[in-house]
Design goal:
The complex is a heterodimer. By secondary structure, chain A is an all-beta fold. Chain A has no helices and twelve strands. The chains are: A mainly beta, B mainly beta. At the A-B interface, β5, β6 and β11 of A face β4, β5 and β9 of B.
């Protein structure tokens, strides 16, 4: 089974609206972390938000929030008030504590396009 | 904040030659670094885990004799693509882990390799 799955190859959103990017994961580890990264066309990986498996609150970072549903094994990224600069590829990634510190497994990615 | 720097950002080489890519942690000691490969519009695939002072751990299917990894110091890991072929053309990106306690990992800017 895929450890991390992003089912939306592409998403479109109107500027200033909110958008949700889906991510589901599969792990037998009790302790794990979920990351979201933004990758613009330049290629750099920009860290957005992190959620630990034992965190009781959903993570938030400015316009980014993570809708963490542990029982469903989902960790969807919500971007509020979309901006044109949000257009990029977005990756969800899983870190399992049983693996090397910092080793990530990435989802397939979602290309987000923000329309004016 | 912590910064990871990769060099070169772009490299073009002839088929059959070797290319070295450097990954440096600029303001922290990275006991572990990770090398990923990314084809256009695809996900990041982990190639190997680079451990300071010991041999790298390669993922299944990655040829260790072709992709030589050296982590000689706590701030530098190098990836050498030996006898490069056009199919090795890709985006190579590293990440670094130091005293990772949950939260962001640090990625280099990536290196785009084109083999003619």
């Amino acid at each position: 089974a895929q450890k991390i799955t992003q089912t939306q190859p592409g998403m479109f959103v109107q500027e200033k609206e909110a958008v949700t990017l889906d991510c589901t994961y599969d792990t037998s580890d009790q302790s794990y972390g979920l990351f979201w990264y933004k990758q613009p066309s330049s290629g750099e990986m920009i860290f957005l938000i992190y959620q630990g498996s034992y965190d009781e609150q959903n993570a938030t970072e400015g316009r980014y929030s993570l809708n963490f549903q542990k029982a469903r094994k989902s960790a969807n990224l919500v971007i509020s008030a979309s901006q044109l600069g949000d257009s990029a590829m977005y990756f969800c990634a899983l870190h399992e504590r049983s693996t090397s510190y910092g080793k990530l497994t990435f989802g397939q990615g979602t290309i987000l396009t923000v329309h004016p | 904040g912590a910064v990871v720097s990769q060099h070169p950002s772009w490299v073009i080489c002839k088929s059959g030659t070797s290319v070295k890519i450097e990954c440096r942690s600029l303001d922290f000691q990275a006991t572990t670094m990770f090398w990923y490969r990314q084809f256009p519009k695809q996900s990041l695939m982990l190639m190997a885990t680079s451990n300071e002072g010991s041999k790298a751990t390669y993922e299944q299917g990655v040829e260790k004799d072709k992709f030589l990894i050296n982590h000689a110091s706590l701030t530098l890991s190098t990836l050498t693509v030996t006898s490069a072929h056009p199919e090795d053309s890709s985006f190579y990106i590293c990440s670094a882990s130091g005293n990772f306690g949950g939260g962001e990992l640090f990625f280099g800017e990536g290196s785009r390799l084109t083999v003619l």
